[in-house]
């Protein structure tokens, strides 16, 4: 991926190689301060490109001929070759972000890694509530990277969707403490906590009957919201909490609004009920 090139090897290592893969040539010299500044950023960007480009390093003190033929008068200079021809380049030290943008321009975006592909597919399946297939995707990630926190959180979500709270907790407990502030992980923990609360509430029909018998029984309505959420009726859960806020915003030290915010965290921003709930909450609080 990163190699030294000389005048005798240039034709094969750069020109011929560039017919199948973009090759960057870094023209540098040992005495050049900006070259030393560029090197770590350039090499990091090339490694991040995951094989999209090769990097050939040419010391112009030892091999000045190619730089002279290309008209390079100052270094560092980086020239991109494709199909045996120079196609683009830049001079001077550049930050890694600009180098990455240059690489994407000449070679296209870095290919997705198998881990990234499996994670994306798993999360799409999870959103579609295909818990079995999603679990297989997250399991595939964990075979490649056993400590991947997104995969562990996703697997826990699959277990939650299937109603297996014990295995969901086992998956989440494998995530180290310092990684639990990540939004995806925090949302999975919040969802587990809500599911465990719902499991303790008992019969849904009984809670609905209590609310119908006394619409001002805020605790019963609150418990009903938790139970509905535990059964996947997110919009119904929102409606019950909004009902409490409409009747008594200060009930249980603003407990209904706080619970609604916990729902939003657990569901995530892509869940339709999150947007539905935010609109309902805004209309109540600012009406």
Automatic annotation (TrEMBL):
Signal peptide: none annotated. It holds the Pfam family TPR_20. InterPro entries: Thioredoxin, Thioredoxin-like_sf, Thioredoxin_CS, Thioredoxin_domain, TPR-like_helical_dom_sf. Transmembrane segments: none annotated. GO terms for biological process: cell redox homeostasis; response to stress. It comes from the Bacteria. GO terms for cellular component: cytosol. SUPFAM superfamilies: Thioredoxin-like, TPR-like. PANTHER family: GEO12009P1. Belongs to the thioredoxin family. This is Thioredoxin.
């Amino acid at each position: 991926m990163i190699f030294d090139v000389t005048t005798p090897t240039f034709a094969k290592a750069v020109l011929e190689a560039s017919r199948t893969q973009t090759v960057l040539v870094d023209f540098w010299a040992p005495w050049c301060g900006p070259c030393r500044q560029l090197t770590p950023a350039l090499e990091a960007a090339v490694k991040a490109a995951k094989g999209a480009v090769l990097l050939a390093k040419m010391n112009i003190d030892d091999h000045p001929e190619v730089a002279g033929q290309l008209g390079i008068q100052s270094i560092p200079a980086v020239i991109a070759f494709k199909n045996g021809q120079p196609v683009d380049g830049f001079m001077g030290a550049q930050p890694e972000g600009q180098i990455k943008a240059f690489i994407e321009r000449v070679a296209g975006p870095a290919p997705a890694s198998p881990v990234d592909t499996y994670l994306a597919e798993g999360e799409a399946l999870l959103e579609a509530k295909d818990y079995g297939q999603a679990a297989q995707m997250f399991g595939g990630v964990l075979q490649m990277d056993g400590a991947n926190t997104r995969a562990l959180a996703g697997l826990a979500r699959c277990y939650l969707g299937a109603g297996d709270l014990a295995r969901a907790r086992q998956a989440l407990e494998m995530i180290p403490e310092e990684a639990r502030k990540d939004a995806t992980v925090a949302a999975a923990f919040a969802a587990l906590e809500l599911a465990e609360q719902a499991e303790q509430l008992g019969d849904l029909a009984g809670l609905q009957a209590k609310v119908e018998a006394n619409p001002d029984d805020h605790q019963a309505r609150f418990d009903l919201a938790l139970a509905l959420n535990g059964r996947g009726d997110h919009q119904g859960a929102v409606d019950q909490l909004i009902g409490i806020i409409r009747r008594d915003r200060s009930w249980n030290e603003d407990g209904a609004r706080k619970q609604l915010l916990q729902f939003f965290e657990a569901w995530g921003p892509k869940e339709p009920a999150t947007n539905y709930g935010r609109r309902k909450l805004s209309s109540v609080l600012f009406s």
